[in-house]
Structures are given as C-alpha cells and as structure tokens.
Amino acid sequence: MSEITINHYLALSSFMFVIGAVGVITRRNAIVVFMCIELMLNAANLALVAFSSFLGDVQGQVFVFFVMTVAAAEAAVGLAIIIAIFRNKQSLNIDELNLFKW
Amino acid sequence: MNQIGLISWALIAPLLFGIIILFIKRESEKLIKYISFFGALISFAIFFAIYLKFDKTIGDFQFIEEHVWISALNIKYKVGIDGLSLLLGLLTVFITPIAIFSSFDYIKHKVKEYYILLLFLEVGMLGVFVSLDMFLFYVFWEAMLIPMYFLIGIWGGEQRIYASIKFFIYTMTGSLLMLIAIIWAGIETGKSLQQGFTSDFVEMSKYLPMLDPNVQKLLFLAFALSFAIKVPLFPFHTWLPDAHVQAPTAGSVILAGILLKMGTYGLMRFCLNYFPAATIYFAPYISILAIIGIVYGALVAMVQTDMKKLVAYSSVSHLGFVVLGIFALTPEAMQGAAIQMANHGLSTGALFLLVGFIYERAHTKEIAKYGGIAKIVPFFAFSLLFASLSSIGLPGLNGFIGEFLILLGAFKSNVLSSHWYAILASTGVIFAAVYLLWMYQRVCFGDVKNQELKHLEDLNKKDLISLFFLFVFIVWIGLYPNTFLQISEASIEKLIMTVVK
Amino acid sequence: MNDYLFLAIWLPLLGFVFNGIFGSKIKTEKIIGVIASGAVFISFAMFVYAFFQLIEKPVEERSFVVTFFEWIKVGSFRVSFSYLFDQLSLTMALIVTGVGFLIHVYSIGYMHGDKSFWRFFAYLNLFIFMMLNLVMADNFVLMFLGWEGVGLCSYLLIGFWYDRKFEKSTTADAAKKAFIVNRIGDFGFLVGMFLLYYYFGSLNFKDIFGAIGSVEISKDIYTFIGLALFLGAAGKSAQIPLYVWLPDAMAGPTPVSALIHAATMVTAGVYMCARAATIFVLSPIAMTVIAVIGITTAMFAASIGLVQTDIKKVLAYSTISQLGYMFLAIGVGAFASAIFHVMTHAFFKALLFLGAGSVIHAMHEEQNILKYGGLKKYMPTTSKVFLIGSLAIAGFPGFSGFFSKDEILWHSYANGGIIFWVIGVITAALTALYTFRLFTLTFLDKPRFDVSKIHPHESPKVMTMPLIILAFLSIVGGFIGVPEFIFGEGSNKFALWLDPVFEKAKILSFHGHHIEHSHITELILMSIAIIISLSFMYFAYKMYTDKKELAQKIANRYKITYAVLQNKYFVDEMYEAIIVNPIVILSEKFLWKINDVKIIDGFINYLADLVEKISSSVKRMQFGYAQIYAFVILFAVSLSLLFLIINS
C-alpha cells in the first residue's frame, strides 16, 4: 500500500469541490444548491486541514474555524431567505427566480 | 487668511437659509418664501459690502481666502475676486432675489423644494465666479447643474424631462473634458513646482502659459469646449432653446441671466489667462463661430412661433457679441464684453420675466395666439417694449454700450486681422430690431384677434417691482455706464497685458 | 450761465417724463399741451439766447462746448454728453425747437379728443429731446444716440394709433418698416464710426475735424467713411435706396408727418453730411455719389408724387424730392445752401402738412384729393396759407423756397455740371406741377363731395395761428439768403453766418478751383428756372379746373407710365420679393427647420440614440439567473488559474 500523501487529500478535496460546483450550477432546487455550496466550503476546509497537517502549521486549522463559522452563518441566512421566497412563490425552482433579469 | 472671509459668508448664507427651509413644514408657504428671499438678500448685502470695500484701481485679486482642503494633492479652498468676478457676482446676487421674488405668486406645487433649490443654485453660481482653485471651481461648476436639472424637470413645461436631461448631459460632457484638462494642467503645473499636482489658479497662471504651444492648444480646446457649450456658442447651442422653453420663468431668468455668463466668464478667466498663445491662435476661428452665432441666432429667432424660443435664440445672438468681444483682445472690446454680460442678464432676464407673466395669464406662448393686447395690458406692453429696446441696443439704454464697445474694439483688433469681422457682426443690430419689433407688433399691436384675451389682467405690483429694479439698471448702465465699467477696468487691462505679451 | 445751456436740450426730456408718468391722470388736455409746448418754447428761448451769445463774438470764435456729464470711458475711448454750440448746430436747433413749438401748439387742436392725448405729447417731447441731441452733439456717438432716438420716436409716433389699418397692412407695420429701414442705414453709420475711430483714435468732432489734413490717410479711406456715413444719411433722410419707409410713415397722425417726416428728423442726414463736410470733400467719389443719388431721388420722387391721390402721399414724395435737392447741394459742396434749404423747407413743408391736417380733419378723415374740391369757400385761412406754402415750394420768386432752391440749382451748375442743373430744373417743373395739382384739386373748382353730408369748416385758432406764422416765415424766411449777384456783396446773410463752419472743407476740397462764372450766366439760369416753374404752376391750375379732360386724356394715352408711377415703380414689391421674402423663407425653412432642428439637434439626438442602442444590447447580459452568474465566475477563475499555471 502506498503512503497516503497530501495529494490524496487534495484529490479528494478537488473532487468534492467539483461535485459541489457542478451541483450549484446544475441543480434546480434551491436547498440542494445550498447543500452543494456547503460541500464546496467543506472541500476547502479539507484542503486547509491537509496542508496544515502536512506542513505542521496550525494556521490552516485556525482558518478552518473561520470558514465553518461563516458557512454556518451563511447557511442560516440563506435558509431564512429560502423560506421567505417559498412563502411568496410556493416554489423553490431557481429557474423561476429571475427578478434581476433586465 | 484662515478666518471665514466675506466671500465665504456670501456663499454660506444661501446654503444656510436653504437648510433652514428644510426644517420648515411644507405648509407654511409664506414663511418659506420670505425666508428664501431674505437669504438671497443677505447674500446681496454681503456682496454689496464687498463692492464698497473693493479697490477699483488694482487689477489683482482681492478678499483672498485660503484653507487647506486635500493636502495630499495640494487642493485648497481658495476664493477671491477681481473686477470681472465682482461684476458677475453682483449680477448673480442681484438677479437671484428678483427671480425668487417674481416666483411668489406663480409657483404653486412643491413650494418648499423649489425655493431650496433656488438657494442652492445661487451658492453654485457664486462659487463659480469666486473660485481661485481649479478643483473648487469644478465642484461648483458641476454643483449648479443639479438644482437646475430639478428646476427644469419638476416645474417645467410639457417636455421638461427631455429638456432637463439634454441640458444636464450636454453640459456635463463638456465639463468632463474640462476635468481631464484640469488634471493634466494641474500635473504640468505641479511639475514646475516639483509638487506632483496643484490646482491653484495663481500658480497655474504663472506656469501654464510657458507650456509647449501644441499642448496649450489641446488644453485650450478642452476648456473652451466646456465653456462654449455653456455660452452657448454655435454649433453647441441646441440645448438652450429646449431648456429655456421648458423651464419655469425664474429658471429661465437665472439660466439666461447668470448661467450663460459662466461660460463667457470661463473663457475670459481661464482660457485667456492660462493659454495666451492658443488664445491668439484660435481667436479668428472662435470669432467666426461667434459671428455665425450672431447672425444665425438672429435669423432663426425671427421665424420662431414660440415667444420663449425666440428670446432663447436671441440669447445665442447676443452672447455671440460677447464672445467676439472677448477674442478681439482690445480694451474696448473686452470691457464691452464684460458690461454686455451684465446687460444681457438684465435685458433678457426682463424679457423672460415678461413672457412668463403673460404666459401665466394667457396660458400660451404662441405668438400667433396674441395680438392687440396693448390696450388690454398697457403696463405689460410698455415693459415689453422697454425690454425689447434694451435688447435691440437702443442708445441711451444698456445694450448699446456693450454692443458698441465690442464692435468698436473688434474693428480695431490686431488679433482679428480684418475689419470684416466687426462689419459682419454689425449686421446683427439690424436683425435684432427685426425679430424683436416684429414679435412686439404681433403680440401688442393690431386688433384683438383672440377673444379669450379680452380679460387679461395687467401686471400686478409684485411683477412691476421685479421689473422696476431691472429697468433702473438698464437705464443707469445706458446713461452712465462708468460706474460699472470702472469695476472691471483694472482687471481687464491686466488680463489683456497677460495675453498680448 | 452758458454751463447750464445743456438744459435747453434736456428740458423736453423732463416734459416727456412728466407727461409720461402723470399724463394719463391729468384730465385737462390743456395742461398736458401747455407743459409739452412750454418745454419746447423754453428750449427755443435758450437757443435764441445762445444765438446772441455767438453773434457777439468775433467770427473765428463762434463756437463753444457745454458738457453735461461724462458718458463712456474705456481706455483712451471717451465720449460725454457734450454739446457743441456753433453756427451750424444752433441753426438746426432753432429750426427744430421753433418749428417744433408751432407744431406742438397745432397738435393741441389736432389731437383734441384723442384718448391717448397725453401719450402723443410725451412722445413729441421725447422726439425733440432726441433731435436736439442729434444736432447739438459734439461727438458722433452722442449724435448716434439722437439718431437712433428719433428713429424710436418715429416708430412710436407712426404706430401711435396702433390698432388701425393702413392701406394693405397696419400702422404697426409701417412703424416697423420705418425702424428697420432706418436701422439698415444705421449699420452704415456704425461702420463709418468704426472707421473714424480706427484712423483718428477718437469720435469727438474736435479731434477728428482738427486732425483731418494733417494725418496721413489715403483718399480711399475717406471714400469708405463717406459712403458708410452716407448710407446712414440715406436711411434717415429717405434717399434711394432707403426711402421706402417715408410714404408708409404717413400712417401716423399728421402733426407727426409735419414735424418728423418733413421738418426735422429727415433732415438729420443732411445735417450729418454738412457737419462731416471736411470728411466728404476729401473724397470726390463720395461727393459724386451723393450728388447723383440726390438728384436722382429728387426727380424720381417728384414723378411719383405727380399721380398720387392721397394728400399726405403727395406731400411725402414731395419731401423725398426736396431732400434730394439738399443732398445734391451737399454733393456739389454747397453745404450752406443745403442747410438753407433745410430751413426754408422746414417752414413751407410743415405748413403744407399742417394745412393738409386741417383739411383732413375738416373732411372727416378723408385723405383722397379726388374727393375734395372747392374747399376755399369753407376754409379760407387754411386755403390762403396753403397757397403761400405751395408758392414757396414751387419756387415763386420772392418766397423763401425760391431763394434756397435757386441757390442750389446755381451751385449744381457751377460746381457739378450742366446735367445736374437740367435735371434739377425738370424736377422743379414737376414740383410746381404736382404742388399746384394738389392745391387746385383740394381748394379750387367745385366740391366733388356731397355737400349735404359733409360740412367742412375752418380749424380753431390754436391750429390756424401756427399756420399763419409758418406762412409768414415761408415768405420772409428767404430774405436772409438772397443771392449776392443781385443784391450786392454781403447780402447773403445766411451764407455769411454759416460759411465759417465750412471754412476748412472749402480749403481742403478739390473743388477749390473757383471757376468764375459770370453774373450773366447766373441771371439767365435763374430766369429760365423762374419761367419754367411759373408756367407749370399755371398749367397745373388750368388743367385741373377748366381742362380736366386733358388730365384724363394724358393718363389714357400713357397708360403704362401712369400705372408704373402710380405703383411707385413697384419698388416696394421688388424689395419684398428680392430681399425680404428670401431671407424669411431661408431662415424658416432652411436655417431653422432643417439645419438647427434636423442637422445640429438631430446629431445630438442621434448620439443619445446611439448610447441607448448600445445599452440595449449590453443589458441583455443581465440574465437574472444566479446560476449562470455562478458559472461565469467559476469559468473565469478557472481560466485565470490555468493561465497562471501555464505561465509559471
């Protein structure tokens, strides 16, 4: 069995990120989009922790706390907005949320 | 130099009163009107005090006041006046109260906002004439656009939105070019002072004339374009008829009386001072545009059917004379141009007031709908004739002094190498008589064709008082102009010396 | 005391201000009339005083300047409200105030009952003020103030009854025409002034006329100045091509026609040329032009006057014709003679016009002479004085007009050439003809109106007294200017009085060569002129009383000529078609609608449209779908990362 190098973690992180990104772009349901955003954020967390561990620098892990806090806050606000939208439009289909169109 | 001088008080007063009005309930219209009028009068009183203390024998700037503003870029709050700015400043503080006073009976909706805007407009206009720092000047220049935009856009005629947007954007386009020029010029001056950037007028006057002539020409054009749009100089004049026709009466009075002078002031103060080589180079071409403006403006005025448009085109014609006077670069012509700036404000201001008065009563500006009203409204008829004669340039009234001096000076100008400039411009006096007298005749003489006009009310006391003050000066300047010529004499002599050397 | 003489000029202005402000509130016409006439009379008295001041001085010192206040001062350019009291200006001032006073008095009667009585007198006073500024000014700019000022008063007075019709248009149109045609002349005056300032550095008479001859200026410049100034004179004094306003000016009340368009304002051009004599004599071309235009206008106008049927029109064309004589005199260097004729013309033309006014009033505003006839019976005084005026203008020996006209004819022969004299005499014949046609048709023969309906009666004393005074002056006025070859050396007092003013002009003039014409020639020429004018007077008298069919036969035989003359050679129509209409159409259709609106403004609006179009296309990038934005962000970031990776 080969050593688990940082590349494995980074590969996993990038897979997670890409899956999340594709999800954000393609999925129609707003809640699923949020889940994918969470996935992207956690992919970044993973990369940070991996680097921190392999470089011996604790700053990476400290930063993860920041990211997690921001992710939590953002999820809370975002879900509140989704609920407000749902109350108005009875639908969470992103295709229908186009009020910013010219 | 660090206290607040008289000039700044003159600027602060209208601003302050405007802010006071903000806090008054919008229902107390009478209170608002009186406070705004009072504020304008304070400004007038302060400026009059400045006039009394002004030394007419020196051509330099007086009452200079300097405060540091943006020290990193060497931009200061610097104000001061010389003869020319004093003359125009007096014009501003004189006409604004009259404009405010004449609006008392006629503005009925959004009264509070109206008077606030007028006061803020006054601050902007005064600021332009007293600024000695380019950046400050630019701020004031742009600042007066906004109240004017609202004045036309809210209280104007049917196509007011089109007119106000056109006015705003047209003027601003020119100003933006001027901004680039200011920055460029500031950097150049800064180089000579090893300072990076400066926008001080005095410094720029010292160093800019030494620039390479080609650079001078470009900078001159950038400045001149902005001012040419404001004057308005042919062919940049098309915003004026629309703006005037759609603006409310007081708006037109201030627009014609003061705003247009900012353009000619700019030409005299900045283009001539900073870029003398370019001035002499471009003088013949600009003079040609001016002469076209004189004749073209007059001919187009002649065939207008709307009274206000007619007066608007007459402004194009009259200001053509002023521009010709400026670029003739002789003492007679430039003094004539200075006094004509004041004259035009008075005469055309009076004409617009009168057109406004009759429009409020008859609800039409179409000349064809009038006729024979001299019997019905004799005071109006007399006033209209008086104002028209002043505009035509009848000797004995103010218009003649300005036009005659300008033409006399243009004729003997060395910069304009041919007599034909003055001769062609002189034909303008014929056309002026044509369009004004014809308009007067169609409106006042003849039979009363339109029966609805039989019950027109004549001018009331307030209207007559507004006109009276304008007329007093029309006669005073016409018979004894030296009072006013002396104000600008020293400064203009200094200016000529700067350019011609 | 002399320092206050400027009041002589400014007093009428006070009259104007007083009557203008309070006139509408004063209910008695008499008060208004007295104030106005009084102001003019006091002016006249002051000028008489000034006259005696001058007489006492030796001939070389007969001029002084009275300054009221400084007007304009810019650099080295300086003009003041300064008045020059010398022989020439005083003569004019006395005429203006003297005849003006008489006309003021007459107007009290003529304008009786008019609801704007006060306005009329206010304007009249203003006119006197302006005219006095014109003739008394000591610089061209103040003269120009008076010049334009009288133009303004002319406008106000022609259009006095501003809601009336006049011929094919309105009185207001006539007023506007007068002002604008005058303004075209004023343009010439302005250019002349500019040239003078350019070459002499000043516009004061003393500076300019003093420097002439000592300054190096080419003859051509003097020609330009002269022609420019003459353009102004032609406008004000109704010469070809700017005379067309005068006949239309008859729309105004008759006293106005008398004062402004006969006695005073129209002579302003003659005065100006006389004052500037030193300039004109230095340009033979300009002098020739003036003489030619003068004599041509004289004959041209006389020919039109021959067939006019409106009493005022006949007199209007007569005025234009007589003015032509005055310019003929100027053109041949006979400046004093021109002013002499100004004076006598003021007397008899004012008389004729005022007389016409009386007739018009008596005939209930009828102005067509074909509807007059036999008025001698009803208006004996008016008829007598009108006869005196007619004899004067036609040049009956002994009357004032005879002496002045004869002097002009003689000088035109002596200094100009026989052709001027011949046309001058022909014109004199025509003058006699149309004048006596007018007199005969109006006062003689039998009434051609319905006597049961119209009862003409003599005018009140306030109107006849001025007429009598003017008649008296028309008779004796000429005796101060009698020809020397008959009455001896020094008998031409008028010429002796005025000649010093033209001393320098005579010295400088190219006509300095004085051809000695024999007295016999002068006598012969005078006799021919007398015989011709007497015969035409008689001929007119006969034709319109006994031999009326003759007039009709001539009219029928020369139908085309008659039509051309009646229609004033179609000059107005030509001006309308060639100048006025093209300018108006050009301005309206092309300059305004096409150029300003479509081209210039269109360009601006096009720019605005362009910006709008660009914005419209660009705005489509705002899809509104957040996912697409996210995709774009992702895409851009990936691309930049790729770029960075490749480059490192």
What do these coordinates show?
The complex is a heterotrimer of chains A (102), B (501) and C (648). Chain A is mostly helical. Chain A contains three helices and no strands. Helices cover 76% and strands 0% of the residues of chain A. The longest helix of chain A has 31 residues, at 59-89. Chain B has 501 residues and is mostly helical. Chain B has helices at residues 6-22, 29-53, 83-103, 111-130, 134-143, 145-155, 160-193, 201-207, 213-230, 239-246, 249-274, 276-302, 307-328, 331-362, 378-392, 398-411, 420-444, 461-479, 482-500; strands at 62-70, 75-81. In chain B, α13 crosses α16 and α15 (378-392) runs antiparallel to α17 (420-444). The mean pLDDT of chain B is 89. Among the domains of chain C are: 309-556, no CATH class; 572-647. In chain C, the strands form two sheets. Chain C has a two-stranded antiparallel sheet. Chain C has a two-stranded antiparallel ribbon with strand order 3-4. In chain C, β1 (63-74) and β2 form a beta hairpin. In chain C, α3 packs parallel to α15 (335-362), α10 (254-263) packs antiparallel against α15 (335-362) and α14 (311-331) packs across α17. The N and C termini of chain C lie far apart (105 Å).
- Domain module count of chain B: 1
Mean pLDDT reading of chain B: 89
Distance between the termini of chain C: 105 Å
What characterizes the major β-sheet of chain C? 2 strands, antiparallel
The order of strands across the largest sheet of chain C is: 1-2
Derived from helix and strand composition plus strand pairing, the structural class of chain C reads mainly alpha
Biggest sheet statistics of chain B: 2 strands, antiparallel
Shape of chain B: globular
Specify the structural class of chain B.
mainly alpha
Query: What's the rounded overall pLDDT mean of chain C?
Result: 87
Residue stretches of chain C low in confidence (pLDDT < 50, at least 5 long) are none
